[in-house]
Amino acid sequence: MMVNNRQISETAAEQYATEFLNDSFGGELFLGSDIEQLLSEKASVVYQIVEDSKYYGAAVQFFDKHFIAINTNQALRLRYYSAAHELWHLQYESGKIPLADIPDFDHERAADRFAAAVMLPKRLVQNLMQKLEENNDVLVIRIADISSMPYEAVVRRLQELGKRFSRAISQRTEADWIMVREELGISPSALDKHDPFVQFSALSKEVAELLKNREITLEVAANILKHTDPKQSEAYWQERQKLMEELDFDDE
What we know:
The protein is mainly α and about 250 residues long. It is built from 12 helices and 3 strands.
């Protein structure tokens, strides 16, 4: 049977997730919120407030430095999943993932599968599936809470591991699951709320250092910090404008 790029990408991500957990912690465990601490040990993390429900984060390499942007305007579950997703990109860009040169390798699909596998380890989830004698709705909610993962990600992961769900359950959104939770009388979870804050000191310091060493211009510095540190970005623009005005004056 021919193996397609999707299968190759997902198989590689699943395998690396297991190796990553073994190398980092000696075995499988639920990382939960610790994924962000783990990420911060490997790259500079920039926390943003972005008013875009479809934006979760991004991995950026800048002058051989790695930065991970996380949107704190997302619910905590989604934030942690995003951090795990970006960890794949970070590890790959850092040369930590020993992938052969595979044509058309789907890194977005691999990152999603890695996030699911590293946050919802196969054997731990399979054990919960066997031991939690719950109906499908409660099973998904309990595993989502135990792992700090999005409900939709849990459903996909359980399906990957052989669990069957009705079409209605498979198509539920995060908002739908919160309503189901309320209907079942299950107490609200802080994981369904967002904790918006901004933290960008690492990036701002890096930009200041590059500017000091004349590796970038004021214009480039201002553009880099436009969304993460708008106050400093504006200061760089004003400094640039002042220099331009002085140059114009000298030419007269």
